Amino acid sequence: xxxxxxxxxxxxxxxxxxxxxxxxxxxxxxxxxxxxxxxxxxxxxxxxxxxxxxxxxxxxxxxxxxxxxxxxxxxxxxxxxxxxxxxxxxxxxxxxxxxxxxxxxxxxxxxxxxxxxxxxxxxxxxxxxxxxxxxxxxxxxxxxxxxxxxxxxxxxxxxxxxxxxxxxxxxxxxxxxxxxxxxxxxxxxxxxxxxxxxxxxxxxxxxxxxxxxxxxxxxxxxxxxxxxxxxxxxxxxxxxxxxxxxxxxxxxxxxxxxxxxxxxxxxxxxxxxxxxxxxxxxxxxxxxxxxxxxxxxxxxxxxxxxxxxxxxxxxxxxxxxxxxxxxxxxxxxxxxxxxxxxxxxxxxxxxxxxxxxxxxxxxxxxxxxxxxxxxxxxxxxxxxxxxxxxxxxxxxxxxxxxxxxxxxxxxxxxxxxxxxxxxxxxxxxxxxxxxxxxxxxxxxxxxxxxxxxxxxxxxxxxxxxxxxxxxxxxxxxxxxxxxxxxxxxxxxxxxxxxxxxxxxxxxxxxxxxxxxxxxxxxxxxxxxxxxxxxxxxxxxxxxxxxxxxxxxxxxxxxxxxxxxxxxxxxxxxxxxxxxxxxxxxxxxxxxxxxxxxxxxxxxxxxxxxxxxxxxxxxxxxxxxxxxxxxxxxxxxxxxxxxxxxxxxxxxxxxxxxxxxxxxxxxxxxxxxxxxxxxxxxxxxxxxxxxxxxxxxxxxxx
Length: 701
Known about the structure:
Elements: E1 8-9, H1 21-25, H2 42-47, E2 55-56, E3 61-64, H3 67-74, H4 88-97, E4 104-106, E5 128-130, E6 134-137, E7 142-145, H5 146-149, E8 156-157, E9 168-174, H6 178-183, E10 187-193, E11 196-199, E12 205-207, H7 210-214, E13 228-231, E14 241-244, E15 250-252, H8 254-257, H9 259-262, E16 271-272, E17 277-278, E18 288-291, E19 299-306, H10 313-327, H11 341-352, H12 361-364, H13 368-379, H14 385-393, H15 398-410, E20 421-422, E21 427-432, H16 436-439, E22 443-462, H17 472-476, E23 487-502, H18 504-514, H19 518-532, H20 544-547, H21 551-571, E24 579-585, E25 594-603, H22 619-632, E26 688-689, E27 692-693
Parallel strand pairs: 4-23
Antiparallel strand pairs: 1-17, 2-3, 3-5, 6-7, 6-10, 7-13, 8-9, 9-10, 11-12, 11-18, 13-14, 14-15, 16-17, 19-22, 20-21, 21-22, 22-23, 23-25, 24-25, 26-27
Helix pairs in contact: 11-13, 21-22
């Protein structure tokens, strides 16, 4: 995390976007500016526009700030300090990846309006700041920081409390262009963000140094505060350019974007604008020019779970210990000593009268000795930072999926919907018969997920390159707060799904055949080139073969996309509303192999979804959907180009016979950004690659 000794302050923070209480109390006074400048769903803030990202509003852009500033918002509600999303398994993962101080997940600072008053709960929201703070006037092309345009009571207008989208930054007394400028007639003109930024792979982001750039690394010889213009012209061969009106210097932005120009950019200052701090002494990484809206400007680091009953005895005891720690979160030292009998007896009384725990069976049966044993089990020999770092390096995201797979694989569910409902996790599952035609395809089991609860947590983010596990955690993990966070933002969705499990023996036989083919070798080589071509140095290290998903993952991933497209036509949900959850890993010494997938739809509403998806698990309907989905994979409007696509050196794409005409879906539905897909692993396509026919590589034939 970021300590005060390691950083210097960004003096342009302005992190109180939802305003002080005095201004909110005068919200109906004429001409007052309101704090709200836009709105967003919690899921969008988790996956697209979280802290450190740039959100494009109607007239300018803002950046959500770090979690330190969110605490001021939560403090405006008495219940805010106690709000939490119950997900112990996900909290333990956050403690490993972010730090042991993380104790809970919290919902975003929002409450529904009461009594139909749209201004109710107006003091809640996600803090944000205007960024970038260099703007261009659309009337005269003036390029200047925000403080130049917004001053003396002019430059910013947001006076309609019901239309925050009308919030505008404008140039007061803009002289305009041409004849209007010569006539001296001034007027207001809207300002838009200057769209160039500097970023480095370590996650730092900064304003582009326009003054420094146009003067070739020096100062203007004519003025201490030169007048700059950002000129955009489609007629000019140089495109966008910066001009200094004071001295006449002119320089195209193409000089900064080119490979040669990149070497001449200033060194990274180590700025983290979402936290309002700089790294003293700057940063060793080279910067590159990026544009507002670039897809690689912000990559979230998310982890999610589907809450399921925990049958493992040790996991259950760990859950009980976590509940005890949460109950005594404000006084953690009270129960640290298992030998303090008086404190333990008092703690038992407190737990048995605790509002959220008093009805738990294990709490009612608890005594001082049992509590002492529970505390001793999980406090003895606490791991040091070195041991935690080693465990972090060896951590695999699959570990979050293993408990879910074990529950779905081992549990024997009723065939009647609702009979297998678990009140604590909110999971309700029923078994469906498997049609003989489907069983012949290698499907072992089909479950209807009547109700589920999915929790999604935001742990941090990266820039330029998406986060992967090539020792990137310490080098590229950008924190969400200046201090080590004790909580992380999360969303809680409820919905339904269909789970399909495949026969492990059939999968292993097919997998060994595929991984012995030249096509698989081409993918392995492309995966290695992809890692080498990544921008971050850390992604180039390590064993790329270990990070490459096995062949079963490719097949199940492609099938999941085919089913999503087909199920969307019969479930009443659009393709973007359906998502995949893949259970695909080989057996090893620690866990059994997994070969299954779940198609899920979920909504943040407490009532969940309407049942159109889980109804498709019915044997006859599922058999028809499976047949139709596989049949559609045999043809693509881009064939034969799509069907014959194989990555050859120097190509590094990670999909073969897959394109937007046949397999690819929206990124809200895909967990791997439409990578690791190939129709040839599903169905027999004509042709072949070197000594193998494609028909020999198809799982379903």
